[in-house]
Amino acid sequence: MTIQATGVSAISIGDLLEQNLRIPQYQRPYSWQPATALQLLDDLRDAQASKAQIPYVLGAVILHARAGWLDVVDGQQRLLTLKMIFAILQSDHALALDKAADNNPVKLVWQALEQKLARLDGKGKDDLLDFIRTRCQLVRIVTDDVDEAFRVFDSQNYRGKPLAPHDLLKAYHLREMRGESTAMQAAVVQAWESVDDKQLNRLFSTFLYRIACWSRGKSAPGFSIHDIGMFKGISPKARSGFLLPSERYHLAAQAAMPLLTAWIPSTEHDARDVGRSRFQLDAPPIAGRPFFEMVSFMLQELAVLEKEAKEYAGAFDGSQSRYRYVYELFIAALLYFTNKCGTHEFRHARDTLFAWAYALRVAMTRVQFASADNRARGKDAASPFVLMRNTAPVQALRQLSVQLKPPHAEHEKALVAFITKTNTP
């Protein structure tokens, strides 16, 4: 359904904070820095000093009405900061922060706000509290359709950090877990939040998204919120009331995996192959908990491959800026190959894919992403991504011709020597 006119209204901060607000589990934790919270406080005090006759509006909050609660879809950073300001002005130190880590964002913001507000006397605190409670407003947008809430979600929070595409994927797949226990949902959120945000962004933007595009011969200009549909996957609880034959096939395959893996000896090598079998990059993910298990596995798989790549050719790894894009080509292609073949003919695949990717660096004195993108999607020559998607991967790599045409560039003599050595029968 769509948001009705009655679902949009201006509301005072005091009235809003007295409602049954709840932060849903899919929201990322509080992350404002003290400087951001202090700027909000300064804005409020400036508005108070202006003595304007009209209310001071702090933007909009988007709320999802659910089971007697209002889940905060957008606006949690502002609301939690306002709650802290209220508590400090009322001398309510109910927040148990003494044992919190020194770098806990809530603790840091609380201490900064408390120090600044300590400069006000009793009347000054009462006046500021009354101004925020009664003269400051938010635009309150309420819907009982969570998808509608996310469609109107303004991804740029007030002076805050915009949600990345993988944040929206987390929210989507957590909603698909609504039949799971609260403990299971909490465990999934904790596991997700334990991973550095940059790692999650890199997994999706640099590897999973590009592999999905390049294997289809398409360009991968940049992973955005408009591309998250490719990772929403198949919902076992189809809203349309039925599943397509292809969706039934993938769901059945996932359901059968535990039975098949029960016969496989438990070793690290076999465990990785079990994960590869469950989470094929060419297959749509299963919505809900399997999605989070897929992300966890892919992070581990990527870490192992990058460690092996460092040991293989550390002098030419991605830590050097001039190798960044060819290194990412190499690792993406290697991840795609091992996802299909495991360790079968791994050394040959590694040598071939390294030569294919790094030959671009030999041919060009400066490699931009556009050049790497064209090479990966097969614009000017055969692409291993396209070949592996359409042909048996080992056979596909045998069709991949890598030639370093002389004269070789003076700027990469060592790289040429390494490629020549590793690709000599």
UniProtKB/TrEMBL annotation:
<dbReference type="Pfam" id="PF25202">
    <property type="entry name" value="DUF7834"/>
</dbReference>
<feature type="domain" description="GmrSD restriction endonucleases N-terminal">
    <location>
        <begin position="14"/>
        <end position="173"/>
    </location>
</feature>
<protein>
    <submittedName>
        <fullName>DUF262 domain-containing protein</fullName>
    </submittedName>
</protein>
<dbReference type="Pfam" id="PF03235">
    <property type="entry name" value="GmrSD_N"/>
</dbReference>
<dbReference type="InterPro" id="IPR004919">
    <property type="entry name" value="GmrSD_N"/>
</dbReference>
<dbReference type="InterPro" id="IPR057156">
    <property type="entry name" value="DUF7834"/>
</dbReference>
<feature type="domain" description="DUF7834">
    <location>
        <begin position="185"/>
        <end position="408"/>
    </location>
</feature>
